[in-house]
């Protein structure tokens, strides 16, 4: 006999007599992680002006380049032009990169160097326009007067602060009503907006740019900070560069080439490799050809979190906010994400003119990236 009594389904699909069963948990699917900010950590100091500046210096250069299209006797000429004659002194031993020949500088006139070829019994070799010239060191004469003083000038670098804001506004009725999964709607809205602002801060630290006119901002121009990508100039590499390993897929040869270039150009120690999801999978694939497993292994591991090369030990950071065709190579000791003093992210209650509570989450931050030649980037890589 079919059941004819009262059941939960008797009143229809809306179940008006049955208490609602709603899980006391709110889940969020949107990505909001900030792995790069987590690694860099809080800055030890704050900026004290909207225009934040720092000083950089460098040693006198010990490299230059041949800049002479008129060399007619490449193995016999004793005079040729360099790109920067002021970098040389009489008595310098110099050597063309890749050559075994030593030369001794005996005269300097503007950018023209007069040299002894085949110095110290070496064999003269061809000199080609554009070749790198290494200055090995200077030999002074015994009893000679002091040489002319040379020095470098410190350079000011700067960035501007950027204001990040989000409004929070909740009606009196919403605040009074019992909420599912939370006790205070206002606090919940603050947490959600703060997650968004931190996400935006990381993306801006990587990708942000500064306006070309009125970077200080105005009533119509918004002040924005330069990000890491915008700062870099010296060590930017692409698959089309001369000498760069062939192909547009990231591999170990390309990564080591970039690390070596940075090592040659600076005293920086790259300790962070920052990538998006696709390039992280390419780095994981470095081990694919040599990975082995025993008959008792039941777990397959395919992840590289630390890369150690001749040029340093690098932690690999995967962030969603990186350009997918790029890899950043960073010296974290030269990077600070700092708030303007007293302006780290905080909630500012605002006056209400009606039946609601309102306020603003606000923070003002800038990026200090010192010695951009200590960092680098590979871009233009395959990303799909």
Descriptors:
alpha+beta; elongated; M1 Pyruvate Kinase, Domain 3; 384 residues; 2 domains; 6-stranded antiparallel beta sheet; 16% helix
Brief digest:
The chain is α+β, with helices and mostly antiparallel strands and about 375 residues long. The protein contains 6 helices and 18 strands. Helices cover about 15% and strands about 25% of the residues.
Task: Provide structural commentary.
There is one protein chain. The chain is an alpha+beta fold. The chain has two domains: 35-56 and 156-286 and 303-378; 63-138, Beta Barrel (M1 Pyruvate Kinase, Domain 3), CATH 2.40.33. It has helices at 35-40, 172-176, 185-207, 228-231, 252-265, 277-284; strands at residues 51-56, 63-65, 79-81, 92-96, 102-109, 112-119, 132-138, 155-160, 162-171, 236-237, 272-275, 306-309, 312-318, 327-330, 335-339, 346-350, 356-369, 376-378. The radius of gyration is 31 Å and the shape is elongated. The longest helix has 23 residues, at 185-207. The model has no long low-confidence stretch (mean pLDDT 91). Strands 2-7-4-5-6-3 form a six-stranded antiparallel beta sheet, with no helix packed on it. Strands 10-18-14-11-13-12 form a six-stranded mixed beta sheet. Strands 9, 15, 16 and 17 form a four-stranded antiparallel beta sheet that branches.
